[in-house]
């Protein structure tokens, strides 16, 4: 194969790859924006306001307070806020209510109680705590899923930028290859 034909073949391959990267980048932008819009609308629909003031200052753990302060008083509508609320507000209250015990531990304690023990004030309190931890874990799971999908959307947008940059580089190299093919001698 002569140099001219080789240049054309490699340049055409590069041009096709550049188009594939452009298409991939466009799809990644669409996916990132779709995820961002869905996460934002679903979180906004919950109408959660991030804690502020005394609600933050009363938290025992300094790292919980530090994680929540940047979002104080804001509407919860983004993945980072969802993670902060789930891990540093809901979990903090769950741990305070249960002395650091998990839902599984509290539920295990409750299920071991006899019917008579469940009817006592202590049994009812343990049942209520079990229900509170269940609801807290459910809300945390929902918020952390929103955080995960929001992060995936952000990664898709970063990948789109990389795909577009790759398309530009391959497009430029293909252009230079076709230009070289025009002036290259048709010898082997």
Automatic annotation (TrEMBL):
It comes from the Bacteria. Keywords: Membrane, Transmembrane, Transmembrane helix. The chain crosses the membrane at residues 155-178. This is Aromatic ring-opening dioxygenase LigA.
